[in-house]
Every structure is written in C-alpha cells, then in structure tokens.
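call fold(seq) -> tokens
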Amino acid sequence: MNSPLKILHLVLGLGALATFNVGATEAKAADQPCQPSWNSLNHRQTPQWLRDGKFGIYTHWGVYSVPAQGPNGTWFANHAYKTNGVERKYWEATYGPLDKFGYKDFIPRFTGEKFNADEWAELFQKAGARFAGPVAVHHDGFCMWDTKYSDWNAAKMGPKRDIVGELAAAIKKRDMKFVTAFHHAENWFYFPTWNTNYDCGDPRYSGLYGPIHEKNALPTKAFLDDWKGKIIEVVDKYDPDFVWFDFGLNLITDAYKQEMLTYYYNQAAAKHKEVVITYKAHNLPPGAGLRDLEVGQEAELTYNDWITDTSVDNGQGWGYVKGLGFKTAGNLVDNLVDRVSKNGYLLLNVGPKPDGTIPDEARELLLGMGKWLQVNGEAIYGTTPWEIAGEGPTKLGKGTEYGFNERNDLRYTGQDIRFTVKNNALYATVLDWPGAKVLIKSLAPKGENWAGLYTSEIAAVTMLGDGKKLKWEMTKEGLSVETPKTKPCDFAYVFKIERRRPF
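ret:
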C-alpha cells in the first residue's frame, strides 16, 4: 500500500504536470493565434517596421528578361502564344516559328553570369529602401529558388543559382526586411496549355507551363496544392517578412488562401516577428492583409493604410524591356512623398538584365532617390499622415479600386505641398522650388472651419538640408516662409515646422 506521504507527493506531482501542460498549451495557442477562417484572419495589423520604413524595392527578374519586349515585358510570352499580334510577329521574326522555338528555349540564354546579390542589396540600401526582395515566381512558372516542386527553377537551369536564397542572405545582412513576391496563380491561364500545336500543350513541360487543361477550366486540386506548397516552402526556407501577391489570388479557393495565410502568420507569431501580406482589391477580405494599388495611389488621405507597387520604367514593363525608357528621380520622389502623405507606402520595381546587371539608368534613379532621402528622410521615415494630406493645384485622377492612376507626365509645382508629422514637427514638402517665399495656405486659421496653426504654436521653421532658422509670418492667406538662398537638394524641398503648446 502507498503511504499518505507518497500519495501526497503523487498528487502534487500530477498537479505540477497538469500546470505545466496547461502552460505549454497556452504558449502554443499564443504562438498560433490564427485559425483558417476569415473571422480569425481579418484582424491583421500593419507591422511597425513597415509603418516606419515606408519605402521598399523589389525586382522582376526571370526568363522574360531575355526577349525583353514590351510595353509589358512580363506578358510578352502570353501575348505571343495566345494572339497573332505584334508579339508573335516579333517572336517568329527573331527566334523562328513558335512551334519550333518555345518559351522554354529562352532559359539557356537567361544566364545571370553577372548576378551579385550583395551588389543588389547594397544598391537598394543606398537608395533608402527599408525592405527589398525578388519576385520568387512569375506567371511563367519559372521558380527563382531551389524548389522541390519543379525542376524548372533557377538553381537547376539558367543561372543555376538559388536567387531567392542569395538575396535573402544579402538583404537581411543589411538589416532590411525581406520581400518575396508570388504571381504563380496566374500560371494556370498564362499559357494556352490546351493548345497542342505548341510546347505548352506537351505534358513533358507542364512543370513550367502549368498542367494541361481545357480552356476556362477551374484550377485542379493538384495545381492548388502546388500553389500553396511553393509559398510554404519559401516561408520555411527563407523566412520572408513581406509576402506580396498579384491579381491571380482570385483563382484560388478560400480554403487554400486561408490555410496559406494561417501557416504564414502562425510561423511569424511563433518567432515573435511582425510580417505583412499584400493583395489586390477583391482577392482577400479586408483586414486579412494590406491592400496594394498597382501603378497608382489614393487621390486623398485615407484612414486605412495601403501600399502601391510601381516601376522605375516609363511603362509597365516590370521586367527589363529594351528601349522602354525611365521615369525621373524627381518624379519618383514626388510620388513617394505624395503616397506617404496619404497614408501609403511604396514598393518600387526594378527589372534587371538577363546577365544579372541592373540597367545603368535604373541604378542612377535609385541613387538619386537615396541622395534625396539622405537629406530629407526625416520627413518620410517614422512619420504619420497629418489631418490633411496637402494642398496645391495639381490633382491626380481618381483611378480605380485597383490603382492605375499614376501619371508619368504629372509635373508638380511650387504650390503643391504635402504634409507629414513626427513628434512635435510638421513637415511641409513642397514638390518644386517655390521661389523666394512659399505660402502654405492650409495653415492659415479660418475660424470655425479650420484652426490651422496658431502663431504662438510655431517655435521655428527650417528647411531640411539647410538647418538655419527661416523668417516667417502668419497672414490671413497662410504661413509665409522665406526660402534659403541655396537649394539643399535637387527636388522636393522640406520645410520643418517645429511646434509647441500655444498657451
């Protein structure tokens, strides 16, 4: 028989074990806060690092950079296979008949022999980006990492390097957050796999072109499993902080999207790290991630934050496109400032050449942005929007719910001003040189309609990059400030208005 003392020890031991198990269960629940349902997934918070960082860079680099034809280079093969237009004519005049030379035959020319992940990461850092990374897989189905799901990947073909892995190491080494972008849901319809006249209809190449299926058929279970498996593999191998999705998510059933999101968010929670997923309109329910506006921006200040992806090139080439041309650094900076003032963030695309080099024009643009941010980053990083986004005569088009309202021909004036705030400072960024004085009309008190700024509230006004106190006066038309004699930068000039309690 057991003695009363032994029984007591046994009870206490079982109690301790039960307490330990409860604690372990609670810890596990805390590390896995999400369940695969929209009720559980629609309360995501934007990471603080993104709210502070504002600006990132990603790259469209893949097999499509070999033909490098546009205006939308990443869709060149789709148009060539599906239509008899200019893309098909160029293809067959340059490379031969499509039934003899298919998209797969570009892969040996996608060499990447000059690719250097550290050089890319260093450039992105010098540009002022706080997060960066590659398109992991585009519509074409060619994976840029060493994946078990397909032999059609950059580790086994073309560059024969794990591009995603090398960039993950180089970017994280510089304390930037790591981005991976996924377009592979569109692989289902990108190539006409139902057309046996071309190699995309040959099952030997389904690992690249996608499974053969009837036109307009819905994705199969095998395709959906592959779609989810590739994302989870990248999450497990490279631990991205930011996962970006293109429009094709509307092809994926709720169950697969919920399982993918749950896995990613719970993996991050277990590591006690903040992550973000972005999506285009109507591809996820509100709150499950952060909405992305493609080549666009909000026309006015919004009370929900958002992000936009656009490119350094003049069109929508995304990948490298010969002769497409580029925006100016001033245009890129103006659009960054405008987005941040309206509660947005910017993910800027660069399309490298097939050999792995970044075009000189793109490099200079990025360095120009970095030079501006070295002087004026105080008005961008770590800021929040003010009560209004800004003022001025130049207006954006309203655009669509998907974006697409960015204009390369938009030229802001010295009367176009955007506001951001941080602590006791109000930053007024004038998007062109205003002349000897700037008049900030929004700051004028207007009685019951708008308090503006009290005169007694203004402690000092300076221009970033100059630092000297500037002469100012509050008039009934607005805050009038004398500008410095010398411009501290080449575009977008920031007046820092230091505030104090007015009484």
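The chain has a mean pLDDT of 93.
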